[in-house]
Design a protein that fits this description.
- The chain is built from seven helices and four strands, in the order βααβααβααβα.
- It has a four-stranded antiparallel sheet with strand order 2-3-1-4.
- 36% of the residues are buried.
- Bound molecules: 2'-deoxyadenosine-5'-diphosphate and magnesium ion.
- 2'-deoxyadenosine-5'-diphosphate binds next to loops.
Length: 138
């Protein structure tokens, strides 16, 4: 199935100047970039994006971190995009991530883990639409 998935190069990725490194890995893995932008999330918008985690002990820290500086949402398309992207980035905690994955290579800890990836094809569509209008997807 041709799927869409949302990547976000998180504020730690931008602070470390790793945008190009991560984008290169995404492109080499065969993803088509439909849209890409840079913005700084407000706490409100970061909280809304991660609303599914509201009430979890890490939620406030997550919202604080995601609004701490610029990030880069990237809309991606590929066969099996959601699962393949999660394979590319690795487990949430870089300690558990497979060798060669983006999080294993670049992330400091579970909270600051370089990149977001959608967790289902349905959420891929919803999350792409959270950041991009259809005319921004080409
Ligand atoms: P993923 O980003 O791999 O889909 P998730 O959806 O479970 O992981 O959580 C969203 C983000 O929240 C995750 O990328 C980092 C943060 N997070 C999750 N669990 C955490 C924890 N136990 N401690 C600190 N941050 C956490
Ligand atoms: Mg998730």
């Amino acid at each position: 199935m041709l799927e869409r998935t949302l990547a976000i190069l998180k504020p730690d990725c931008v602070r470390k100047n790793l945008q190009g490194e991560v984008i290169a890995r995404i492109q080499k893995a065969g993803f088509k970039i439909l849209g890409m932008k840079q913005l700084r999330l407000t706490k409100e918008t970061a909280g809304a994006f991660y609303a599914v985690h509201k009430g979890r002990p890490f939620y406030d820290g997550l919202v604080e971190f995601m609004s701490s500086g610029p990030c880069m949402p990237v809309a991606l398309q590929k066969e099996n995009a959601v699962a393949d992207f999660r394979t590319l980035i690795g487990a949430t905690d870089p300690k558990d991530a497979a060798d060669g994955t983006v999080r294993k290579l670049f992330a400091d800890n579970k909270g600051e883990n370089i990149v977001h990836g959608s967790d289902s094809p349905e959420n891929g569509k919803i999350e792409v639409a959270f950041f991009f209008s259809e005319r921004e997807l080409v």
